[in-house]
Amino acid sequence: MRLQTVTWQEVESYLEGSKGVIIPIGSTEQHGPTGFVGTDAICPETIAKGVMEETGAMIAPTLSIGMAQHHMAFTGTITFRPTTLIAVIRDVVESLHRHGFERFFFLNGHGGNIATSDAAFSEIYANFSLGVSGTDRSPPRCTMVNWFDGPDIETLSEELYGEANGAHATAAEVSLTYYAYPEDGARIARNSKLEPEIAPWGPIRDADDYRRRFPDGRIGSDPTLASVADGKRLYDTAVSEVSRRYRDFLAED
Amino acid sequence: MRLQTVTWQEVESYLEGSKGVIIPIGSTEQHGPTGFVGTDAICPETIAKGVMEETGAMIAPTLSIGMAQHHMAFTGTITFRPTTLIAVIRDVVESLHRHGFERFFFLNGHGGNIATSDAAFSEIYANFSLGVSGTDRSPPRCTMVNWFDGPDIETLSEELYGEANGAHATAAEVSLTYYAYPEDGARIARNSKLEPEIAPWGPIRDADDYRRRFPDGRIGSDPTLASVADGKRLYDTAVSEVSRRYRDFLAED
Amino acid sequence: MRLQTVTWQEVESYLEGSKGVIIPIGSTEQHGPTGFVGTDAICPETIAKGVMEETGAMIAPTLSIGMAQHHMAFTGTITFRPTTLIAVIRDVVESLHRHGFERFFFLNGHGGNIATSDAAFSEIYANFSLGVSGTDRSPPRCTMVNWFDGPDIETLSEELYGEANGAHATAAEVSLTYYAYPEDGARIARNSKLEPEIAPWGPIRDADDYRRRFPDGRIGSDPTLASVADGKRLYDTAVSEVSRRYRDFLAED
Amino acid sequence: MRLQTVTWQEVESYLEGSKGVIIPIGSTEQHGPTGFVGTDAICPETIAKGVMEETGAMIAPTLSIGMAQHHMAFTGTITFRPTTLIAVIRDVVESLHRHGFERFFFLNGHGGNIATSDAAFSEIYANFSLGVSGTDRSPPRCTMVNWFDGPDIETLSEELYGEANGAHATAAEVSLTYYAYPEDGARIARNSKLEPEIAPWGPIRDADDYRRRFPDGRIGSDPTLASVADGKRLYDTAVSEVSRRYRDFLAED
Amino acid sequence: MRLQTVTWQEVESYLEGSKGVIIPIGSTEQHGPTGFVGTDAICPETIAKGVMEETGAMIAPTLSIGMAQHHMAFTGTITFRPTTLIAVIRDVVESLHRHGFERFFFLNGHGGNIATSDAAFSEIYANFSLGVSGTDRSPPRCTMVNWFDGPDIETLSEELYGEANGAHATAAEVSLTYYAYPEDGARIARNSKLEPEIAPWGPIRDADDYRRRFPDGRIGSDPTLASVADGKRLYDTAVSEVSRRYRDFLAED
Amino acid sequence: MRLQTVTWQEVESYLEGSKGVIIPIGSTEQHGPTGFVGTDAICPETIAKGVMEETGAMIAPTLSIGMAQHHMAFTGTITFRPTTLIAVIRDVVESLHRHGFERFFFLNGHGGNIATSDAAFSEIYANFSLGVSGTDRSPPRCTMVNWFDGPDIETLSEELYGEANGAHATAAEVSLTYYAYPEDGARIARNSKLEPEIAPWGPIRDADDYRRRFPDGRIGSDPTLASVADGKRLYDTAVSEVSRRYRDFLAED
Questions:
Q1: CA of A77, closest CA in chain F: separation in Å?
Q2: Which chains touch C (3 or more CB pairs under 8 A)?
Q3: Lowest CB count within 10 Å: A88, A130, E92, E110, which one?
Q4: How far is Cα B84 from Cα B61, in angstroms, rounded to an integer?
Q5: Do chains D and A touch (3 or more CB pairs under 8 A)?
Q6: Which residues does chain C have with pLDDT short of 70?
Q7: pLDDT computed for residue F190 by the predictor
Q8: A141-154, pLDDT tens digit by residue?
Q9: Which residues from C are below 8 Å from B115, CB to CB?
Q10: In this structure, what are the phi and psi dihedrals at residue B37, rounded to the nearest 5 degrees?
Q11: How do strand C20-25 and strand B141-146 relate by DSSP bridges?
Q12: Is F134 in contact with B137 (Cβ distance < 8 A)?
């Protein structure tokens, strides 16, 4: 069930059967010369749709903007300050929590969101832990799952690309977005000879430092290996793996 | 050009020809027994795609969550606190402003966003007006246009529904979403006899007060009049009108 | 009853008969070459005193500073950032709400306050709507009435000045302040030939943009038409109209 | 010159001769059974008018609400949270500082404001001290003077009331407000037998604790000693002393 | 009992006998050419250990960083913005309050902390005073005691140094730190001829202004008079006086 | 060089040779029946002293309180909300950055700090990345190193305790604190039979959930294996490994 295309009464009915919700969260940021600016939002949004079909989970609207300050030296990137993203996540969780949702499964497409989301969950819990929450409800339970780091998806990414998968603008995520938007993928994939073939690695700091280290935006990847066909395989694997992890989360005591 | 499905280099090229961007902004909130929870995000997102085709404008990802505290007594609604939405808009504008965007056209689908967005624009301007902005760039220029209140769209809505269009869960917005999602529309439209036919009017306060006044969520509307065919007409009119207003905004001295 | 010149026991007695309070809210900002910097605070403060006499309402101290970032390129203007004004309104309402006040009628003199005050009301309601208010009291009920836009006052302003009333440093508000401070009015009214007679119109953005568009501060007005005699008529009309609207607000179900 | 009743051009002229401004700051809070809720705002506002006449200083609008959480168990009290008051003072100072004001003299009527205002000044300075102010202007210089604790006014208060002056709802401040509002003073002064004659002393904590310690709101005072005649003497002394201190502040290297 | 070196069960046992806790709070800031950057943290930490031995009080970890923006023009100084320090104190008090602590005795070593801490206490109380605290517990009770301004310690400081004690980088506090860290003291004390012998006095504003007025960092002091032997006497006196004040605070009704 | 026990001129001299600083950061929280509440602060503080001796690094005062909301159901725990800790880290870094420090090495003792500190670094960078930093300095460079997860220390912990080291109240950290405070260690180590010997594992959420899953506070550990002798070995290994990582960080291009 997609929250966006149901009525409020249908949400009420859903809650009789489940207290879980999946919230896709991504980012709007450069993904190298052959990747979409929206890569990190498109991936979890696409996978979430599959998980919805497999598990019947409620899917909240995608949070398309994340914490991406380090990509700001590349045109088109949008970032939330961490404190803004904390407020965003807090308000989303508090809203759905009031309605009776209890288990919040953030399906994430962007490494840069992990720390801040974890901080956001603690910010939410803290009012309960300090005993000042102002509500009688039990605390919500939040988790974040990155579609790209389960054992199955990592095995497949390794099989498909080995080291060339990389850490940013990875071959795997680019494949997945080409699968989701094949025409746009075809357009930008023409642009396909990159120098060097495999991008460098390094630490992540502020935006200018990032651009100095990673001049075309990629980290450690050769995304010219990406293809729609790979994207389909990655999609199937991710949907199946994330569905399992979602069910585990609901079953958690 | 959709920011989400282009590369950062394509954004750079775009900026050589235009400094404008359209940011669809909506809400995730109840829209009565026959309207989608995502109505207010779906409408501007749908229209923005048409405006993009007509004007070549860059479309940023939809901000799907808005200020909807008054709908919180209906399951499924998500709200940002006003101060959260101010931070969200500030960060989005500051991010794109750094890249050289200068004109920010928020295409809005939700009345509840208007005041807070206006406050957000002033929060952004204030650092410039106080002389403490910390950047050498000229201030961004922001405007918000509600797709539902231009003269053409109001005339058409009046023609189609007269008084029964209403103020929340309007027949016009419901038509537009049925046009965008006809299958989902068909499912919920079955549910079509509402009591009373035309919902009551009244002031908007906190969530419990809202539910007391407007028991099924609608204000002043009979959305059972909605249809896909109307949605198509509304869409065409809105695309044309919003395109004109976007061009006017770019041309503004 | 003016809150400032009664004892706390007198406030307690007042609450036995009414739960309403009027809070004049204005701004400290340029009002063109013939208007007071304090125009927007003086007008609601003056009218509120009349409404108090007519209705017996409790009048809180005037909030003399508002959201006026767009006037900051004119010397003497003071602005709150929108987030500051939200905090100010929240604390005032929460304070009086704790004592048992339930209906908060903000009598406003400044267009620039409208959006932010509306956001502030939603910020206050949001804790109730999200179920985390931390108090057992019912939510407060807030409204903002602009003294200058009721039907009676608009008719009179039109009758007195027609188009020359304008949108900022209006002839009507300047008249009202001359009525309140005739000596100061006489001093500055000497300065009476303005160029052009009727100021231009345009959109409102940051402060430098404002000054570029509206070089002497006025928008659309010819305030040299202002007079003490007009101010008296405007005062009488406003007091009567605002009194009616205040009573309606108290009676609202 | 009262900022509220001059034009922006008059403020510009003022700045050619002085960079100083006086900002009366008070509170809206209980002042015992014979004192006005607005006592702490009325006193500095009244004295500031005298200082203006004596020194030609610019007087900003009175900040009538302060930090008064400890009085919240008495009906009618309004408080800003300290963080709100810090934002208020910051915005006022930043606004006037942009126009060229350099010396900010807060004339204070409320002990509860002292700590928070001092924190606010440091909050303003901190951006300069950390080198991140975002402006080229030199930092503003802020001071707070309590009208009630200069040597002259303390001597007179001691002479008039000795120990019965007290610490809250003092005989001196009540006299000063009766001088400013003799009719209202006459009304409430009838209420004149207090039990005990001189109120108790003690530490200040939260609101309920305050009421437990100081059941009628006074601390250490017998304000039934207050009179209009005393108020006149206190006014003259305060105007003279504050004028001297304002001139000293302007002259400070 | 030092909170840092006991188990949580030992804290539980402690609470059966006392609800009090001592929180040393200092600063990390320049203390002239012969004083430690950590002077203001070392003094209350050192004294607190003695008070713990004398009274059995629980000692929380030292808050070593305070509000020191005015010292920022001297290398090594660290400052919290006042709003940061307010959040720090609020979280510390709320945390221990949840566990059952009721009396919070901040033992302070830095004048610059006084105002902001007082604001912080009011920020904490305000939620209770406004009736929105979200907890059923009674409000915490907070006080701040400066080790350097009790009657006994002032008498001794006067006896030892007279006027040369000064206001910043005082001879007394430097002695106390030499007593705590004699080797480090010996190293820097060599550096002992200061010009002028007794530093100037003046007001405190932003950092650059401070450095202009007080070129080597001291205010009004000749800390070359400091010695380990004096430090020992000051320590004994402070421990005894602070112990008495702590016991008084616990006994306060 | 310990920042706390040097003069500001000594800090200036230090900066001629190095731009690096080590900031120990820990937590004040339960560590099971045999661990100190201050474990997570004591460990990095102790190791930092050794690293200082080995590398000559400047050591800032320990930030003893961290993000520990999940431990709040155990008496004695203190937590910062994540947004508070972000402000704390931002102010510390901005302060030292103004003085010329460029490389900020946070030596961490608490897993719960990792996410929030990472968010804090991004919050600091974001002003630079968005181009609104208000300073001309280059951005600071921040890293966090957990003393407990370098390869050498992990190997030794594994060798000493195998699986019984665990995840909270680990045998390794308890050993290290017994080494630092042998007397206190001896006192609490008596308390040595735990049930079950090895504590359970599980996810971390709010405080009550934590206590339900981990009734005595430990996660996965048997800290009764801890000893002073082990602590010495762990100390030596950590000092050597952290020193190497600090030097690497300084040398990073």
A1: 10
A2: A, B, D, E
A3: A130
A4: 18
A5: no
A6: 191-192
A7: 75
A8: 999 999 999 999 99
A9: 114-116, 118-119, 122
A10: -60, -30
A11: unpaired
A12: no
Task: Spell E195-231 as b/e; 16+ CB within 10 A means b.
Answer: eeeebeebebbbbbbbbebbebbbbbbbbbbbbbebb
Determine E/B contact with 3+ CB pairs under 8 A as the test.
no
Return all residues near F53 (Cβ < 8 A) that are at least 6 apart. none
Q: Identify residue C47 by its one-letter amino acid code.
A: I
The candidate with the shortest Cα–Cα distance to A24, out of A248, A247, A242, is A242
Tell me: cis bond preceding E196? Omega within 30 of 0 counts.
yes
Q: Which of F32, F83, F95 sits opposite E78 (nearest CB)?
A: F95
Instruction: Report the residue from E127, E132, E135 with minimal CB separation from A131.
Output: E135
D191 pLDDT more than 70: no
CA dist., res. F24 & res. F33, Å (int): 25
The answer to whether the Cβ–Cβ distance between E82 and D115 falls below 8 Å is no
The number of residues making up chain C comes to: 253
The pTM of the whole model exceeds 0.90: yes
Alpha helices in F69-195 (DSSP H): 82-98, 114-129, 151-161, 171-180, 182-189
The rounded distance, in Å, linking the Cα atoms of F95 and E84 is 13
Neighbour order of strands in the sheet with A141-146 = A58-59, A20-25, A103-108, A141-146
pLDDT digits (tens, 9 = 90+) for B1-25: 999 999 999 999 999 999 999 999 9
pLDDT tens digits for range D69-99:
999 999 999 999 999 999 999 999 999 999 9
Residue of C nearest to E135 (CA): C134
Sequence spans of domains, chain C: 20-243
Residues of chain A positioned with their CB less than 8 A from the CB of E132: 134
CA F196, CA A110: separation in Å to the nearest integer? 39
d(CA D65, CA D48) in angstroms, rounded, equals 17
How many Å apart are CA E152 and CA C251, to the nearest integer? 64
Give the tens place of pLDDT for each residue, B72-130.
Answer: 999 999 999 999 999 999 999 999 999 999 999 999 999 999 999 999 999 999 999 99
Which chain F positions have a beta carbon within 8 Å of E30's beta carbon? Answer: 7-8
- Where are the extended beta strands (E) located within chain B? 20-25, 58-59, 103-108, 141-146
Residue E171 near residue E221, CB atoms below 8 Å: yes
The helix/strand/coil state of B168 is strand
Using the beta-carbon criterion (under 8 Å), do C132 and A132 form an inter-chain contact? Answer: no
Beta bridge partners of F23: F106
A186/D70 Cα distance (integer angstroms): 67
Low-confidence ranges of chain E (pLDDT < 50): none
How far out from the chain centre does Cα C178 lie? 16
Residue with token string 């006449």: D53
Q: Which fold has domain A20-243?
A: Rossmann fold (3.40.50)
Q: What's the average model confidence in pLDDT over D120-149?
A: 97
The pLDDT confidence band at residue B191, using thresholds 50, 70 and 90, is low
Regions of chain F with pLDDT less than 70: 191-192
Tokens linked to E161: 């140094």
